[in-house]
Amino acid sequence: MTTADRSADRSADALAEPVERVGRGWISALSLANGAIWVGWYGPLQILLASQAKDFAPGAGMPKETLLAWVTGAGAVVSLVANPFFGALSDRTTARRGRRTPWIVAGVAGGALSLLLLAGASGPWTMALGWCLVQLTLNAAFAAVTAAVPDRVPRLQRGSVGGWLGAAQILGVVGGTGLATAAGGIGAGYAACAVFTVVGVLPYVLRHQDLRLADEDRPPWHWRGFFAGFWLSPRRHPDLGWAWLTRFLINLSNSLVLLYLLYYLRDRVGYHDPDKGVLILTAVNGVTLLATVVVGGVRSDRVGRRKPFVVWSGVLMAVATAALSGWQTWPGTVVAAAVLGVGFGVFTSVDFALMTDVLPKALDRGKDLGVINVANALPQVAAPALAAPIVTYLGGYRVLYLAAAAIGLAGAVLVGRIRGVE
Question: Which residue segments constitute the domains of the chain, with CATH numbers given?
Fold first, then answer.
């Protein structure tokens, strides 16, 4: 076989619908890489950014809730652009290491450096800059990690692979929270998250070869066409549009729950150690999520259906969120966290598989998944804009969590509008 023939075979593999099941080693390595990225995000989001906002708020002349909302919102805006942009670049990449791996390496290296910049932040502006850089770089890596699934995993294995990625995600949330809490300070917390993020991607990068796109199969470069490709018309792709909307609404509900959790425990529940309380709730949520995330994905693969799992998981999450409004005690919060974990576990794995099932074109998997992942990032922009005035002026945490429950329930109901997936 000539070099040209081998290049054509690699490109055909990169653009073909996968049929060969992936092995446990590949799944484990990709899951670890995914979890490492979530450590880099959620150590700051759960503990470190809130602690810095509390320290910097007096000098900035604003409440800590408002400062935190502005910083996380700015980072989420960067995420909105970065995920589909780097996904599209990875679709076009013809490097020897493949389409996705170079972006995983560059994104994680940049993310680690950005976390270290956050560790040395001296005020609100450097805090905001550091967090925006974290979102920019880690989203480059995350776009490539998620695109590897439709590249390599056949449709009837995507629920279970999505389950393992979801398990790694919650372990990353728990691990990031634990590192941030146990490190002994804000700077040490950021450094610990940076180191773990780098180490966690090494097994996948070093041990597993990526699919390579041949130069002749890369589409011609046109700036206008490149940017026009980010618009996926809901009229032309209605299933993708409805799937995007349902993911956005359920993630918005979840973001509203998480954003002020530290302050909710301190100011409303009156828990004696809010930092430790967040860690306990995250662990409880993680245990119940882990109990359902893989099982839900495997079960969905076996029965060949996605929508019923997504609908009922969304309903369950809405019920648990409403409980936070009406049962504002420490035991009530623990129960709500546990039930949220059950629902979000099933949703995480099965919704991911559903999203990969409605992708329009193999050549644009990274870009299209990046557009879909906007439904994960946009709630981080919308949640602060909704939550800050509700908590401050419109009824406090009781109204906030009732609104979050209604939003999540709407997302669950709208799953029924998707026609091309059962």
Answer: 3-417 (1.20.1250.20)
